[in-house]
Amino acid sequence: MYRIGIDLGGTTIKAGVVDESFRVLSSCAMPTASELGAETLVRQMIDLAEKAAAQARISMEQVEAFGLGVPGTANRRTGLMEYANNLCFENEPLPDMLRQHFGRPVRFTNDANAAAWGEYLAGCGRGSRSMVMVTLGTGIGGGVILDGKLYEGCNYAAGEFGHFTIKYDGRRCACGRRGCFEAYASASALVRMARQAVKSPAGRESLLLKLCEGDAGRIDGAMVFAAKSAGDGTAEKVTEKYLHYLSIGITDLINIFQPEILCIGGGLSQAGEALLAPLRELTNPGIYTRTSKVNTRILSAALGNQAGIIGAAMLED
Ligand SMILES: [Zn+2]
User: Cβ(30)–Cβ(15) under 8 Å?
Assistant: First the structure.
């Protein structure tokens, strides 16, 4: 039997057929009709699911269940998508609307949880019993798997790692508090620091300015790590500062959860060992159980964009 996972994003909807070994057999995508309300979105999801099934050469009768990752609060108890970033509706029963069409179980969770569940089952968490995922993107997202189960909290909003404080009275965050992890350790924070650095007198000779062809607005996280690997002093200083902040939050998360795996996801995780090796070194002295034989392994996400599709498809009640 097969399952279909749908990753509903603010700009793109993706759907894919997943088999029992968690392999994605087909996937397709279309731009989200975010302005047009829930019914149009449901229509889009149905079309994509049918297209994905056709591409995988299976019939809809062979699909035992559907899963949905949504950019907002997915209340699994009521079945309502309570709130969504970037979509124009609230309190819509998305799973029910899909269930009425397909006549099969439809489960949902928020997109960060879906990605974490996918990585846990089929990516860097495979074979473990506990994993914490931290996604470094525009903000910082996350997901928690404890004893083999996705932990969603009493209101389905657990794992919002972007918003714990790592710097007392620090920068104001978009959430209204000060000094949040995401204001210092998201990919956007890294880019902000790099753009500032190339404007300083010491940064004017930086390789970063060559990589972005003189337009600091084009600097991205990959460029910063590329310049650092090439030995650029400005990029080295920026990444050192960034990794310092990142390591504070990651150390805290490891001390709180003691997961088998701490998975780093998001675009920045593509920097691989250039990011992970110094991060391990910086976190280690602060790990409470550092002398223990068993300790958390920090790994980068293995599945990229497919994690959300696999995780959504494989949700359980
Ligand atoms: Zn915040």
Answer: no
For the stretch 210-262, pLDDT in tens is 999 999 999 999 999 999 999 999 999 999 999 999 999 999 999 999 999 99
Please report the domains of the chain, with CATH numbers, ordered by start residue.
Answer: 2-121+306-313 (3.30.420.40), 129-300 (3.30.420.40)
Neighbours of ion ligand 1 (CB under 5 A): 163, 173, 175, 177, 180
Query: In angstroms, rounded to a whole number, what is the distance separating the alpha carbons of residues 239 and 193?
Result: 9
Taking each helix axis as running N to C, give the angle between helix 221-229 and helix 273-283, from 0 to 180 degrees, rounded to the nearest 10. Answer: 80
Tell me the C-alpha distance between 24 and 9, whole Å: 18
Beta-strand runs (E) in 94-201: 106-110, 131-136, 140-146, 149-151
Q: What is the DSSP letter of 180?
A: B
Distance (angstroms) between ligand 1 centre and the Cα of 63 equals: 40
Distance 220 CA to ligand 1 centre (A): 22
CB 64 within 8 A of CB 34: no
